[in-house]
Amino acid sequence: RNYKSPRSNLSELRIVLLGGRWTGKSSAGNTILGREEFVTEGRTAQCVKRQREVAGRQVTVVDTPGWRKSWSVENTPELDKQEIVHSVSLCPRGPCALFIVLRVDASFTETDRRSVEEHLELLSKTVWRHTIVLFTRGDRLGDRTIEQHIEAEGEALRWLVGKCGNRYHVLNNEMRGDVTQVTELLEKVEELVARNSGRHFTVGERMESWEDHVESDRLHCNSNKFITVGIH
Length: 232
Known about the structure:
232 residues; Rossmann fold; 7 helices; globular; GIMA/IAN/Toc; AIG1-type G domain-containing protein
């Protein structure tokens, strides 16, 4: 079942969109804000932040560079990883929610699952308390419900949805005029904030994780140097 909880009525909401390339992050940002704020042609190379009043709330959306589908975090360019980590700093006091953006018409394999997990945990191991799965291209569901899609897609997608506390939402980016889908999304963000007792994802959580990642890379490099010296 989709997540339902008492919610806080907030005047300001801050959202970060994360996910692989070509999943529809920029289009989702435009749908949420109700106008063309993000460029949808070509690849997003740097974080982009846009703000607008939506349904009586001041909404901030941060779009981020996507990683290649199925890529391990080790294969993702360092600049892209830095931008992903930087994204939360663009939200004063931290984002209220981080959306993992997936296309409803694309398969989601175990390799995809590991890729999402690795990239999300660049931010923190605790990031999952603040995440919601956002499915784009909702029109491709046809007669199926999103619950039927999640069940049919397999264990990898069910794991991801479960890891996000069974929080998910569907957007049809072809129906920008449908304000209900956006209002319901914002309400789910408010429910998430209420569940977290008003806490947002903090920069402190993010920095601790990034420092661990940098230290791991340093040790890996030193290990490789040691092996090289040993060979010679």
